[in-house]
From TrEMBL:
InterPro entries: Cation-dep_OMT, SAM-dependent_MTases_sf, SAM_O-MeTrfase. Transmembrane segments: none annotated. One of its GO terms (biological process) is methylation. Keywords: Methyltransferase, S-adenosyl-L-methionine, Transferase. Belongs to the class I-like SAM-binding methyltransferase superfamily. Cation-dependent O-methyltransferase family. CDD domains: AdoMet_MTases. It holds the Pfam family Methyltransf_3. It comes from the Eukaryota. It comes from Mesorhabditis belari. This is O-methyltransferase. GO terms for molecular function: O-methyltransferase activity; S-adenosylmethionine-dependent methyltransferase activity.
Length: 223
């Protein structure tokens, strides 16, 4: 049986530790935000896995990405990761229905780096409303990168909205792609996860692959 786990969570897989130690090099501000979230939020397991955030930053640099969609803010760890990876004129639109974790923990830490903070537009409200308003404002094709990490039930719809908003060659990362129990056999909550994975994998508008890092990552490049 394979281990599916975020590196900061309790696990007993030496391969996860080996890969993380060798390749995850968090910026000190990211480390501070991660430590503060783990120490102060009872739902800290929602925090993006640092290995996933690192992969996203590498993809952003590889495609020279500037404009990012961050679906699910929580304390702001993913928004900060993208802000650090894009150039000075880059922008991150980060959306969440609830800003309490951001206000309690993340915002003051992110503000310690004004250069990164000024790139992030934190939007309060349902991600579906925010994505729909961006589409209505005529912003389809203007984004380079999307990270989908909010409510599981809407994952497939968020993927569809992000496909509209991305330019060809843009990257969508769908987090928690092996989460929710037994994703391989689509049991329990993993039924939704499995349905989203199958939807992306059958989508001829993108090239995708599914990897076992963190609690699973589905990577899709818009063709
Ligand atoms: C897993 S956390 C995001 C973690 C964050 N991306 C990170 O890297 O640390 C999921 C977030 O999605 C938010 N959320 C849940 N339902 C939502 C919705 N319908 N629209 C927008 N955000 C939602 C939750 O409030 C929560 O903060």
């Amino acid at each position: 049986m394979s281990t599916v786990s975020k590196s900061y969570a309790e696990h007993s897989d030496p391969v996860i530790d080996y890969c993380t130690k060798l390749t995850v090099k968090l910026d000190p501000l990211q480390q501070k935000l991660q430590d503060a979230t783990i120490a102060n939020h009872k739902m800290f397991v929602m925090l993006g896995a640092p290995e996933i955030l690192t992969i996203g930053q590498h993809f952003l640099k590889l495609i020279h990405g500037k404009n990012c969609l961050d679906v699910g803010t929580f304390t702001g760890a993913s928004a900060l990761a993208w802000a650090l990876a894009v150039p000075n004129d880059g922008k991150v639109i980060s959306m969440d229905v609830d800003h309490s974790a951001l206000d309690q923990i993340g915002r003051s830490i992110i503000n310690e780096c004004p250069k990164s903070a000024q790139k992030i537009d934190f939007r309060l409200g349902s991600a579906m409303d925010t994505l729909n308003s961006l589409i209505d404002e005529g912003k389809c094709g203007e984004f380079d990168f999307a990270f989908i990490d909010a409510d599981r039930a809407n994952k497939t719809l968020y993927y569809e909205k992000c496909m509209q908003l991305l330019r060809p060659g843009g990257v969508i990362l769908v987090d928690n792609a092996l989460a929710g129990g037994d994703a391989v056999h689509a049991i329990g909550d993993a039924v939704i996860t499995d349905a989203c994975n199958r939807h992306i994998s059958a989508d001829e508008r993108s090239h995708s692959f599914l990897i076992n890092t963190g609690d699973g990552l589905h990577v899709a490049f818009k063709a």
